[in-house]
Amino acid sequence: GAGVSQSPSNKVTEKGKDVELRCDPISGHTALYWYRQSLGQGLEFLIYFQGNSAPDKSGLPSDRFSAERTGGSVSTLTIQRTQQEDSAVYLCASSLVIDPGGGQPQHFGDGTRLSIL
Amino acid sequence: GEDVEQSLFLSVREGDSSVINCTYTDSSSTYLYWYKQEPGAGLQLLTYIFSNMDMKQDQRLTVLLNKKDKHLSLRIADTQTGDSAIYFCAAGGGATNKLIFGTGTLLAVQP
Predict the structure, then answer these.
(1) Cα separation of A64 and A38, whole Å?
(2) B42 CB near a chain A CB, below 8 Å?
(3) How many angstroms separate the Cα of B46 from the Cα of each of A13, A107, B35, B56?
(4) Digitized pLDDT (tens) for each residue of chain B, 111 residues in all
(5) Which A positions 27-46 lie with beta carbon below 8 A of chain B?
(6) Within a 13 Å sphere around the CA of A5, how many CA atoms are in the beta-carbon half?
(7) Which of A56, A85, A102, B85 could staple A48 via S-S, CB 3.0–4.6 A?
């Protein structure tokens, strides 16, 4: 597509439920990132995919968080047994293949606003 | 780890220039980015600069990088009310290019 697409745009759920957030990156972008934006913590890196592999998961806050990517395209971020502190905006970004030393700019979706009651 | 800092708020009058400042700690950051976020929206890439450059200009935007002091600035010429938003500085590079973001600077443009 023309840009990074995320769904749903808003999600309200009860504490303890599982949620799945979806990201459809820009066509041809092999690198995909998930970030979280919250009032207390600002913008934080969660996980990085190159193709279907996740060589950097260092930002996932707990084992309740997991992500996968299939076909080198769509990615799903899953949060199990949600807690109120999981409330945040979850942003996905994609970029072209990483040059040695980095540098390809990341293009962001509009995010999923997650509210845990 | 890497830390990126920005001032929280800037107020300017329409037509003036705005300068938003950012400092970072990791000298190995190879790329520095500026993103704009409007209410309820994602992050819009404005511009970015490679660490071996001192300056980059793109229409009304000028980025200055002082690598010695690890200081980055974004100048917006002829600021318009549509420029009102939060501006984030981010540092990236390395094998993954994961971005470390500053806290964001809220730019308020007064008519």
Answers:
(1) 18
(2) yes
(3) 34, 10, 5, 12
(4) 788 999 999 999 999 999 999 999 987 788 899 999 998 888 999 999 998 889 999 999 999 999 999 999 999 999 999 999 999 999 988 778 899 999 999 999 999
(5) 31, 33, 35, 42-45
(6) 7
(7) A56
